[in-house]
Amino acid sequence: MSLITPEFGLLFWMTVIFAIVFFLLAKFGFPVITDMVRKRQERIDRSLKDAREIEARMGQMVEEHARMLDEARKEQAQILREATDTRNKILATAKDEAREEAAKILAEARTEIEAEKEAALRDVRKEVAVLSVSIAEKILRKELSEDKEQREYIDRMVEETVREQAQS
Questions:
Q1: How far apart, in whole angstroms, are the C-alpha atoms of residue 19 and residue 66?
Q2: Which are the contacts of 7, defined by CB distance < 8 A and separation ≥ 6?
Q3: Is 153 in contact with 144 (CB distance < 8 Å)?
Q4: What does DSSP assign to residue 2?
Q5: What's the chain's average pLDDT?
Q6: Rounded Cα–Cα distance for residues 162 and 97 (Å)
Q7: Those residues with Cβ within 8 angstroms of residue 140's Cβ, 6 or more apart along the chain or in another chain
């Protein structure tokens, strides 16, 4: 028997066996295989659909992330501006308070200096008055050493006092 030129019986049986195997495969094998291929196709389609949805969500998330970063930058800039404004206000307030305090201290110092000046002038006047009285006393003692001169001086003083009261 030769395979290159098969006999009629061999061809017959090979055709019958092929038909039986084909029938069994068509009846039991092909439906399972086509069902598995269909399920795999559905799973692949679902995966592709999910991948597209995930890709769309990722695009939205990237946009949302970019938007949130932009908002955060704007908020940061606003906070920095507010902080700068607050710092400037605090500095201005502190400068004003320092000026007011300096003016107050200066006014108090001037008042104290004026009071000390007045006290010193009073002390000087007092000393001058004491010295004047002391000098006048010494001069009067010397000049009024006699009773006659003392009486003349007292009479003159009484007359001057009377004249001054008469004019007032």
A1: 66
A2: 1
A3: yes
A4: -
A5: 87
A6: 62
A7: 153
Q: Which residues, in sequence order, are CB contacts of 150 under 8 Å at separation 6+?
A: 144
- Whether residue 1 has pLDDT greater than 60: no
Dist. CA 165–CA 162, nearest whole Å? 5
Residue 100: pLDDT above 60? Answer: yes
Judge contact between 140 and 131, C-beta under 8 A.
no
Q: For residue 2, give the amino acid letter.
A: S
CA distance 75 to 69: 10
What whole-number percentage of the chain has pLDDT above 90? 60
pLDDT tens per residue, range 49-63: 999 999 999 999 999
Burial readout 52-71 (b: 16 or more C-beta within 10 A, e: otherwise): eeeeeeeeeeeeeeeeeeee
Six-digit token pair at 64?
Answer: 């949302």
